[in-house]
Design a protein that fits this description.
mainly beta, Immunoglobulin-like, six-stranded mixed beta sheet, 8% helix, disordered N terminus
């Protein structure tokens, strides 16, 4: 009998223990909390939001689906939807109750739990330990230059990408990152300098660099409440692009003839510059497409090409042509025209005779080309000689004035030479031959003569 009673007692104890174990197991399975993010790096930044959810059995009756969340004071403020109790959330049909807490400002350790009430009994999840870390500047916002900036040139084309990183759980205005650069670095593309970070807490910005070489700085900042947190400045150095790479001038002839008629075709090409306007100036000659003559403004096409024509002057001197575009030092080329030699020479005396020892006779000469629209180069030297042939012997007589300026004008004339028949060796019985000569080419001369009769005193 005693043996039977002992067995019964043992069975009751086993059943009771099993019942208690089932109740504990059921309570742990009845409600638990799951987090939507990594909770190992949370900061007391008064902005980040911790998102999480409570899970209860989906078959729980609707009147028992209200989940009450609890947190240690100081962890933060619940962001639920219930007006009077933001920490109370009704689980959906799947048994999920979602909520969030906007983290506070005090670092420390906090506990978070959830509970439901069913048939007068309260079932609570375990306490989850949450640590809020001290907010550090470099943990709140970091800046990285994604692009390779070694040997980066100020070419108006290259693009630099920046990445600012903020905590993934940042929300609202704290996800807005502003990029700041030194003036002149370039122009922001796409979203501009203000970017909203993505779900990974990353904000990307692109800058197309400018055209001026130098050292520039970039930083990023985010605003939390009344405070602004900014990264340290990062250095970006843009190497200058040589002006000769940015703009080129190519004439089709570097040594035209200085005849006031020849046309040189000019081709200007630009690279690495934003402004498509090219200003050309010349120290000599005239641009055919310009009313101003010595300057012209050209608009480059989509390939950066602009063309014009320059009429070469009649002066044998360097034609310095300068091209200028915005943000670029001017670039010049030199065209050195060759001499346009005379093909004909006319002598026009002021009179057909001259008084011995009397007034001078003006000797005007004109240098000409066969084609009238072409000119002999200005400042071509005309040489003069006067002589008589007496008894078969040629001897120089008389004298000239104005030889120091016996250079041709733009129309080829030399008007300022005067001849006097006042030397002692003059023979009044013989005519005087006036000879004028000018270069015909590099080695030969073009010579013309006239005769003046002599009137005695």
């Amino acid at each position: 009998m005693m043996k039977k009673m002992l067995v019964a007692v043992i069975m009751l104890v086993v059943v009771a223990c099993k019942k208690d174990a089932d109740q504990v197991l059921n309570q742990q399975d009845l409600i638990r909390i799951e987090f939507d993010m990594d909770t190992s790096a949370l900061f007391a930044d008064n902005s980040s939001v911790l998102q999480f959810r409570a899970i209860i059995p989906s078959e729980t009756k609707e009147q028992f689906r209200s989940v009450t969340f609890s947190a240690t004071e100081g962890l933060g403020e619940f962001q639920g939807t219930t007006a009077d109790k933001k920490n109370v959330v009704l689980a959906d049909q799947a048994g999920t109750a979602k909520t969030a807490i906007k983290l506070g400002t005090k670092p420390g350790y906090y506990f978070l739990s959830a509970q439901i009430t069913s048939d007068g009994k309260t079932f609570k999840s375990q306490d989850y330990l949450i640590r809020l870390q001290t907010l550090k500047q470099d943990e709140l916002i970091k800046l990285e230059i994604v692009s390779d900036i070694a040997n980066l040139r100020a070419d108006n084309e290259s693009v630099i990408q920046f990445k600012a990183t903020i905590p993934r759980n940042s929300t609202g205005e704290t996800r807005t990152v502003t990029f700041i650069t030194t003036q002149g670095l370039g122009t922001f593309e796409g979203t501009g300098a203000t970017v909203i970070a993505n779900q990974d807490g990353e904000a990307l910005a692109n800058i197309k660099v400018g055209g001026t070489g130098g050292k520039y700085f970039v930083a990023a900042e985010v605003k939390i409440g009344e405070r602004t947190y900014r990264t340290s400045d990062q250095l970006i150095e843009l190497l200058p692009v040589a002006a000769s790479e940015k703009i080129r001038l190519e004439p089709d002839n570097f040594q035209p003839v200085a005849d006031g008629f020849t046309i040189v075709h000019l081709r200007a090409s630009i690279h690495f510059v934003k402004d498509k306007k090219i200003v050309l100036t010349t120290s000599a000659g005239t641009f055919l497409q310009s009313a101003a003559g010595t300057s012209i403004v050209l608009e480059a096409d989509d390939q950066g090409i602009a063309e014009t024509d320059l009429r070469v002057s009649s002066e044998v001197k360097p034609h310095v042509i300068t091209a200028t575009v915005a943000e670029t030092p001017p670039v010049s080329i030199i065209i050195n025209p060759e001499v346009s030699f005379a093909e004909d020479l006319l002598i026009e005396p002021g009179a057909s005779s001259i008084d011995s020892g009397g007034a001078a006779v003006q000797i005007k000469t004109v240098l000409k080309k066969i084609l009238p629209e072409r000119l002999v180069s200005k400042n071509t030297l005309v040489s003069f000689r006067a002589y008589q042939v007496v008894g078969g012997i040629s001897r120089e007589v008389g004298r000239f004035t104005g030889l120091a300026s016996s250079l041709s004008t733009i129309d080829g004339s030399v008007p300022s030479v005067n001849f006097f028949a006042d030397t002692p060796n003059l023979d009044i019985s013989e005519p005087i031959t006036i000879e004028a000569s000018a270069p015909k080419n590099a080695t030969e001369k073009l010579t013309k003569t006239i005769q003046l009769s002599v009137k005695g005193n």
